[in-house]
């Protein structure tokens, strides 16, 4: 045991170095830069006091929330189908559905442009049907589609693992008692995958809040928080404002992840 304790303490050295180099020092520097501007510590309130930044925050929150809800809804359906059915080519289908995991955000944005851009496939089809050319790649709808496409594989993999661990006898018992499919879904399946649902939803929300590559490709006429931070320190050279916005973005996403982790832990403990 003493040797094991010494080994554990020895591992604290690289852990401490990692935390110091990749978390503490960058955060301390970010906080210092945010307070070094002409507004001083009031720069931390720029997200609320600046109407443009506040509007960008609200738009980013709404977009991230709706994209997360849509991703969860699609992910539950796909996970239930793949987890409860066996058919030829299933593994190949799952591999294909997880392919977007290998794509950076810029590639996802490019694919949305190919589908719904000015020369996109959807626009060509709608024009051939006499409905005019539909172009929505450079709007909130385009960002929404990109965020859902980007987050869906992550959510699907997590939920698929949770569905496969569910006990089918619970659903059979509920049906034998006269429960409908909707009641089984509401009272058995969703509570059973609840912790995984919340965890994957929190990750999808945090990913959407901080997504830059897709926003950089598509957000030509709209503002999201990641793009606002980018323009503040590149085009405006306003490092203090960019740092303050970055801290605010980090605190929001960290808060959502922390709350979800605690709530999911309470759900697991209650279920046990």
From TrEMBL:
Membrane found in the keyword field: yes
Pfam family, one: BPD_transp_1
CDD domains: TM_PBP2
SUPFAM superfamilies: MetI-like
Record localization: Cell membrane
Family: Belongs to the binding-protein-dependent transport system permease family.
ABC transmembrane type-1 domain span: 57-260
Organism for this UniProt entry: Azorhizobium oxalatiphilum
Protein name stated in the entry: ABC transporter permease
